[in-house]
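STRUCTURE:
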């Protein structure tokens, strides 16, 4: 089926579904088979060599997993897609497959904590040269790219301060030196942002977040040109960080409602951010949809919606956060984001728990910051919940 003429909401429902069709089932079957039999040895041989379509062994590919891969491929407008056991599986497999001793990667200081650990702890052990730039300093990032590099790794909006990176501008800089651009599109989702159309070579997601949308399965996906995806897939099928069919089923099912959820979350987050911005007990609100956001114009030029995640700073210290958060009723105080239910927590106990207070300060993460991932609840109820917790401070 060709999805070029369909909008995202349609592609999210129908994309990939014919890959898994089985006895006319109208919903994706979960194929929990590890292995697949062939009576014809020549056919078996052709499939095993990748010269004919089919399945051999579920560490490599699986019919349920293919449905999910096709769905995200169609939504990102890519030639090919593959999947992983988690978002970190997608990030680490991509970086390790594309890089090698002596190669250089340029990235930003504000990537997701797990990606930062790959940059600071693991890649240097294998002789990869890593340069992490100040996230909002596009001139500095361009200067570092121009010195020569193999991979430019970007994430936008960033976690937890919602900085926005100009993807067109940095993809153009990367092209000038022949570097591949990889973008983590987890926060934006393919409903709000299409990195491949903005010049990226590869786009990845923690499918655990908005794609799945219900906090009940973990996964990762990667989309791009066939040759690039094949290079990463080859590494993943050997190191074994494959997605299991049960998780693939839950993520693919969640994705059918992606557009509905994201439209709701975009609208609610903008309302809540605007409301909090004017509140006397809130020091600052970080949300790319606010006209006061330092990169609002960039966000406007590359995003069609601003996403469901914001962070805000309370007046006062971490003590205020400790009082405020437990007084919210419509929230899970938990790590993660992108679920149907609102999730919140301070970077101090979630994304940046491993850093010292001083390291967080250097990254511009105040101790009184709270990351708030808006769910699909009614926005009036969420605003009332926030207001009554703020009033009680
Ligand atoms: C932006 C971003 N990328 C990647 C990841 C890693 O995903 P996972 O937890 O599925 O490994 C996360 C997790 O929070 C994230 O927020």
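SEQUENCE:
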């Amino acid at each position: 089926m060709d999805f070029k003429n369909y909008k995202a909401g349609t592609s999210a429902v129908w994309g990939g579904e014919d890959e898994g069709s089985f006895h006319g089932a109208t919903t994706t079957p979960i194929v929990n088979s590890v292995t697949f039999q062939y009576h014809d040895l020549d056919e078996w041989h052709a499939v095993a060599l990748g010269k004919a379509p089919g399945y051999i062994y579920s560490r490599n590919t699986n019919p349920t997993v293919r449905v999910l891969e096709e769905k995200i491929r169609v939504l990102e407008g890519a030639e090919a897609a593959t999947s992983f056991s988690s978002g970190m599986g997608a990030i680490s497999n991509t970086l390790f497959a594309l890089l090698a001793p002596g190669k250089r990667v340029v990235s930003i200081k504000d990537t997701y904590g797990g990606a930062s650990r790959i940059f600071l702890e693991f890649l240097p052990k294998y002789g990869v040269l890593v340069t992490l730039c100040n996230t909002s300093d596009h001139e500095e990032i361009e200067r570092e790219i121009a010195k020569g590099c193999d991979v430019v790794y970007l994430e936008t909006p960033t976690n937890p301060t919602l900085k926005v990176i100009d993807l067109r501008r940095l993809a153009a800089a990367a092209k000038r030196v022949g570097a591949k651009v990889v973008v983590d599109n987890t926060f934006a989702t393919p409903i709000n942002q299409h990195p491949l159309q903005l010049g990226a070579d590869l786009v990845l997601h923690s499918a655990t977040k908005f794609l799945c949308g219900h906090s009940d399965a973990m996964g990762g996906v990667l989309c791009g040109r066939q040759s690039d995806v094949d290079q990463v897939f080859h590494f993943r099928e050997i190191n074994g960080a494959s997605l299991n069919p049960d998780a693939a089923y839950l993520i693919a099912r969640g994705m059918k409602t992606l557009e509905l959820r994201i439209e709701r979350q975009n609208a609610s987050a903008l309302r809540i951010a605007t409301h909090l911005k004017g509140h006397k007990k809130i020091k600052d609100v970080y949300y790319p949809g606010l006209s006061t956001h330092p990169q609002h114009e960039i966000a406007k030029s590359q995003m069609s919606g601003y996403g469901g995640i914001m962070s805000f700073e309370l007046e006062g210290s971490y003590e205020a956060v400790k009082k405020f958060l437990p007084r919210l009723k419509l929230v899970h105080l938990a790590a993660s984001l992108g679920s149907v239910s609102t999730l919140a927590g301070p970077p101090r106990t979630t994304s940046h728990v491993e850093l010292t207070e001083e390291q967080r300060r250097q990254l511009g993460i105040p101790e009184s910051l709270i990351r708030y991932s808006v769910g699909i609840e009614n926005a009036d109820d969420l605003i009332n919940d926030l207001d009554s917790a703020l009033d009680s401070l």
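REMARK: The CA atoms of residues 183 and 382 lie 31 Å apart.
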